[in-house]
Amino acid sequence: MEVRVQDNQIENAIKALKRQMAKDGILKELKKRRAYEKPSVKRKRKRQEAKRRRDKVARRYSQRGSR
Description:
The protein is built from three helices and no strands. The protein is mostly helical. It is flat and about 50 Å long.
């Protein structure tokens, strides 16, 4: 991963790096690997994430119909 610093604008380069890391999912992966996650907790988290995605899609479809 590479971010170029232009005109000694380090703050902007750091922001760009954080944006790119968030987009690539690196920050989420780091948080996930920081501590051991029990298999039961992992299954529960996966179910919740799947439900969140389903609800998001359902909201999108319901908004299309109400327009």
